[in-house]
Design goal:
Blueprint lengths: L13 H9 L5 H13 L2 H8 L14 H14 L3 H10 L1 H7 L11 H13 L2 H16 L10 E12 L7 H20 L3 H8 L9 H5 L6 H25 L9 H15 E3 L6 E3 L17 E4 L5 E12 L4 E9 L5 H13 L3 E6 L8 H8 L3 E3 L17 E3 L4 E3 L5 E3 L5 E3 L2 H5 L4 H4 L9 E3 L4 H10 L3 H8 L2 H14 L8 H29 L8
InterPro entries: IS1182_transpos (IPR047629), Transposase_11 (IPR002559), Transposase_InsH_N (IPR008490)
Pfam families: DDE_Tnp_1, DUF772
Protein name: Transposase, IS4-like protein
């Protein structure tokens, strides 16, 4: 038996018309989805969704993928859990109306089927197609005749922090948590109590409910804290030796091998030999790419600004400025620079047959290869230039750069040629006799003033000109639209991740972005509806 396709009726029933009339500001998206579900989930897109399933004739017939896709959007809109979403298909008339199951007394699908559908979306990259479908339909239906076939776009990229869902722990708790995972895995494999493994392996500290309770010291006393660390480290080493002796083959097989890798990673990143008294101590400084959570191994320490720190991820979006549509999404660990996400965003945009004509970014993305690609294709990059500061001395901005002649001229009128990506040093003899020396440089005798020239200095030079004119500053302000989209996403999703791991959080961001696009489509369609114009492009 083939997969059943979802074909809900297009015209509103009398009951649905009453519901739509009663829906105010809080329920208007339900009404909009009911009225336009056949456009979003048309026959062609439902066929794509059905491609996630193999038609073998075995097993149960799946719930229509189109219905499950709509339920997935509703879940993101309502912020409901899987279990709650199943119940809402019975008790919430708004959900029933959108899913075409008004009056049903049984759930439209099971929790297991809903979970399975989400993982199929992720595995087959169909969450990306769902986002792309909202872009495609919204661009076709919005009332901008000149833009409906436009493929060269004004695109803005920005990011925001996302606190991870995994628990963030200090060094002692990380070690204890990682060791506990190993012990639990061994106990399950041997089919014996965890307490017996702890006793046999010589790690009794894990018999208590928490590592610090098992160590039981005054954590305000530095020496006691150091002894507790030595005790925990010795017991962890005892566990490793016991495993090598008693389970030599099992330690190389998953999942135990993965848990042991995590334990080794945490030890390596957080401990170092103690030069004073043997043993180990907590490492000075933060290890590169330090793991902060056992439950979510992809979370990292990050900074959004000099004062704002967070643990988790960065969410990146690319927005079409003219239509307020989110074209692409990416999630990266919090410690990765913004520029790394730009290429993935560009790739997703180009998948849709779209090109970036004007790129609006902040300085975090300026070194991305995407910037160079946009310029090579004749596009334009709009961004604030890096500022130049030099204390009380002349800043770089006081020097005149002639990009065509590749020369830099100091405030005293002396010129020097430069090469992109290198440091220019003015003649020491001229600097020594210059009347402006005290205002220009504090270099030692025999040295002249230096000026760093960036590899992308021509771009920086052009960007600096933007801030000097009202028209240029107005163009820079256009990027605020993407900040508004991020604020809306933050309000919808919250500041904390719903899932663990990058890929699942990419799915959640794409779903939220799809909903945001539908709301933009709805908002732009409202004026046309008020003037009696059709809301569709058909």
């Amino acid at each position: 038996m083939g997969i059943m396709r979802w074909r809900p009726p297009e015209p509103l029933s009398e009951q649905e018309e009453q519901f739509v009339k009663r829906m105010g500001r809080k329920g208007k998206l339900f009404a909009f989805l009911r009225q336009h579900r056949h456009e979003l989930l048309d026959e062609a897109f439902q066929e794509e969704l059905e491609g996630m399933y193999r038609d073998t004739g075995a097993g149960k017939t799946p719930v229509p993928p189109g219905l499950m896709a709509m339920a997935t959007l509703l879940q993101g809109y309502l912020g409901a859990s899987d279990a709650t979403m199943v119940e809402l298909t019975v008790f919430d008339l708004r959900v029933q109306m959108v899913l075409d199951c008004l009056g049903q007394t049984e759930p439209a699908f099971s929790q297991g089927a809903f979970y399975d559908f989400r993982h199929r979306l992720i595995r087959e990259q169909m969450d990306q197609r769902l986002l792309e479908k909202t872009v495609e339909v919204a661009r076709q239906r919005m009332r901008w005749e000149a833009r409906q076939t436009k493929s060269l776009l004004k695109v803005a990229i920005d990011s925001k922090p996302l606190e991870g869902a995994g628990r963030v722990e200090d060094t002692l708790n990380l070690l204890g948590h990682a060791a506990r995972k190993v012990v639990m895995c061994v106990a399950k494999h041997l089919e014996i109590p965890m307490s017996l493994v702890c006793q046999e392996a010589g790690i009794p500290v894990l018999l208590e409910s928490s590592v610090k309770k098992g160590l039981d010291v005054d954590w305000n006393e530095r020496e006691q804290k150091a002894r507790a660390l030595q005790k925990l480290y010795k017991q962890v080493e005892s566990l490793k030796k016991w495993l090598k002796k008693n389970l030599p083959e099992h330690v190389t097989q998953a999942p135990l091998s993965e848990h042991l890798k995590t334990l080794e990673q945490v030890s390596r990143q957080n401990l170092e030999p103690d030069p004073n008294g043997g043993g180990v101590r907590i490492r000075w400084g933060v290890a590169e790419d330090r793991r902060v959570s056992i439950e979510d191994g992809q979370m990292r320490h990050g900074r959004k600004s000099q004062s704002k720190r967070f643990n988790g991820y960065k969410q990146h979006i690319a927005t079409e400025l003219e239509g307020d549509l989110i074209l692409a999404c990416e999630v990266t660990p919090a410690n990765r620079p913004e520029q790394e996400a730009a290429q993935a965003l560009q790739k997703d945009i180009e998948r849709q047959g779209l090109q970036i004509a004007e790129l609006y970014i902040d300085r975090g993305y300026i070194n991305s290869p995407v910037v160079e690609e946009v310029q090579k294709k004749g596009g334009e990059v709009v961004c604030k230039a890096w500022g130049s500061q030099n204390g009380e001395l002349f800043a770089k901005s006081a020097f005149h750069l002639n990009m065509s002649r590749r020369t830099v001229t100091c405030p005293a009128g002396q010129s020097q040629s430069f090469t992109l990506g290198h440091v220019v040093e003015f003649e020491a003899q001229k600097c020594a006799s210059c009347p402006l020396r005290e205002k220009c440089t504090s270099a030692a005798s025999g040295r002249g003033r230096t000026v760093s020239i960036a590899e992308n200095e021509p771009l920086q030079h052009r960007l600096r000109k933007l801030t000097k004119s009202p028209a240029g500053r107005a163009r820079l302000r256009q990027r605020v639209s993407v900040e508004h989209r991020l604020a809306h996403l933050s309000r919808r999703q919250g500041h904390r991740a719903r899932y663990r791991g990058i890929r699942k959080n990419v799915f959640d961001l794409r779903r939220a972005a799809a909903l945001q696009n539908i709301e933009s489509w709805q908002r732009h369609s409202a004026p046309a509806q008020q003037h009696g114009e059709p809301m569709t492009g058909s």
